[in-house]
Automatic annotation (TrEMBL):
Organism of this sequence: Natronoglycomyces albus
Name of the molecule in the record: nicotinamidase
BP GO terms, sorted: pyridine nucleotide biosynthetic process
Top class in the EC scheme: hydrolase
Highest taxon listed in the record's lineage: Bacteria
Length: 192
């Protein structure tokens, strides 16, 4: 039965998990927890979609001296191992994959494309009006994706137990921003 709901799995990639170039503490566990949550909740969503940070030359998003707020060590470069999905997450559950950030910073999955199609139009075209957002990292790409989802008019929740973040301060401000934008926060934040 169609329920108009989708799960958006944000950036569960090797570079954001332990051993990666921009590892988020608990990233690998989040990947596994997402996989189990999907397996245990068949029918909860019409579609699962995934996003990927997928950089070629994103300019000042990469830095030799990153501030870990606006600039970062090189990560998720197309063709490298770090850009791959974490092995704890099987992307075959996803109906579509949205890549973002080839030539600029792109925190939101709504900046991503699957072939020629953007995430918002793909979701609308598939009858989706409600989204649940999980993945990495709470304070950056999950935040930006959830905020854009709400602004695009989707009823939006973030399942915090299925996210992990970079830094406690930016996690706190991300939670405040998401609430302010009308995103429903479920569960407890996991992070640094
Ligand atoms: C992300 C920092 C830099 C994320 C991406 O996926 O949250 N964080 N690029």
């Amino acid at each position: 039965m169609s329920n108009g709901r989708a799960l958006i799995v944000v950036d569960v990639q090797k570079d954001f998990c332990e051993g990666g170039s921009l590892a988020v503490t608990g990233g690998g566990n989040v990947a596994l927890a997402i996989k189990e949550f999907i397996a245990e909740n068949e029918g909860r969503w019409d579609h699962v979609v995934a996003t990927r940070d997928y950089h070629i030359d994103p300019g000042s998003h990469f830095s030799e001296n990153p501030d870990f707020v606006d600039s970062w060590p090189p990560h998720c470069v197309v063709g490298t191992e770090g850009a791959q999905f974490h092995p704890n997450f099987d992307p075959r559950v996803a109906s579509a994959i949205f890549d973002k950030g080839a030539y600029e910073a792109a925190y939101s999955g709504f900046e991503g494309h699957s072939g020629e199609e953007e995430l918002a139009s793909w979701l609308r075209g598939n009858g989706i009006n409600t989204v649940e957002v999980v993945g990495l990292a709470t304070d950056h790409c999950v935040r930006a994706t959830a905020v854009d989802a709400a602004r695009e008019g989707f009823t939006t929740s973030v399942l915090l137990n299925l996210t992990a973040g970079v830094n406690p301060d930016t996690i706190a401000s991300a939670l405040a921003q998401m609430r302010h934008e009308g995103v429903e926060l479920q569960g407890e934040p996991v992070g640094a």
